[in-house]
Write a sequence for this structure.
């Protein structure tokens, strides 16, 4: 997958790219490119934002700046999906991650300040995605959330000891929550591991996990 992120803070992604799973797939199944709006802005002195028409607090990311960034990289609005990260978008969930992970190319647009000039969302982006019903200061964390969630779904992201198939929200668990996990010691401060997990009876363990998953998943 080629995943392009447009941001005002490309250096913020340094940590993410050094960690698994992103580091495992970088240069293999993931080609992650970071672009700074300031590098292609047609305005002087690296300007990217402006006062909102109608007045009010804060600055707004300009449509001509984002259009120039897309022109510089793709020669216009690309054919592939361009996702504006905005609290007003469709809320990200695992089915959306699975759907997007099937794309060969994706572009993420992040904003800061008061957000995007609305024409960016309506004319330059094909999708608008929110990572949840709360406000963050910029689109970098939402973009990183999406990069991480997508990277997990790419070939080579997870080691053989990790399961990318049986996890909360996965099809394997009917979109429900995962069962609880325990590891050594079997007893700590009087808190014991459920006997069934120590029984070695894989059929019973499987059954217990299914029940646990069902009981913690919303109906
Ligand atoms: C401070 S927010 C702007 C909030 C906007 N004024 C509003 O009330 O909806 C600045 C930028 O951070 C990003 N952002 C903040 N919260 C987000 C969320 N929950 N999901 C996706 N992006 C978010 C978006 O790119 C947004 O344009």
């Amino acid at each position: 997958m080629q995943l392009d992120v447009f941001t005002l803070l490309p250096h913020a992604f340094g940590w993410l790219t050094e960690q698994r799973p992103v580091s495992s797939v970088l240069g293999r199944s993931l080609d992650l490119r970071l672009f700074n709006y300031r590098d292609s802005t047609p305005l002087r002195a690296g300007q990217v934002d402006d006062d909102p028409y109608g007045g009010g607090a804060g600055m707004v990311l300009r449509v001509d700046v984002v259009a120039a960034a897309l022109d510089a990289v793709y020669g216009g609005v690309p054919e592939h999906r361009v996702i504006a990260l905005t609290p007003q978008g469709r809320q990200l969930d695992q089915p959306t991650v699975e759907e997007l992970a099937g794309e060969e190319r994706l572009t993420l647009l992040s904003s800061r300040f008061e957000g995007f000039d609305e024409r960016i969302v309506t004319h330059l982006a094909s999708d608008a995605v929110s990572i949840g019903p709360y406000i963050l200061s910029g689109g970098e964390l939402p973009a990183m959330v999406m990069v991480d969630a997508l990277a997990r779904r790419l070939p080579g992201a997870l080691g053989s000891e990790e399961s990318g198939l049986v996890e909360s929200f996965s099809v394997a668990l009917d979109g429900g929550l995962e069962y609880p996990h325990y590891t050594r010691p079997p007893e700590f401060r009087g808190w014991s591991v459920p006997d069934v997990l120590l029984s070695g009876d894989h059929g019973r363990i499987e059954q217990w996990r299914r029940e646990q998953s069902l009981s913690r998943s919303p109906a």
User: Anything to note?
Assistant: The first strand starts at residue 2 and ends at 7.
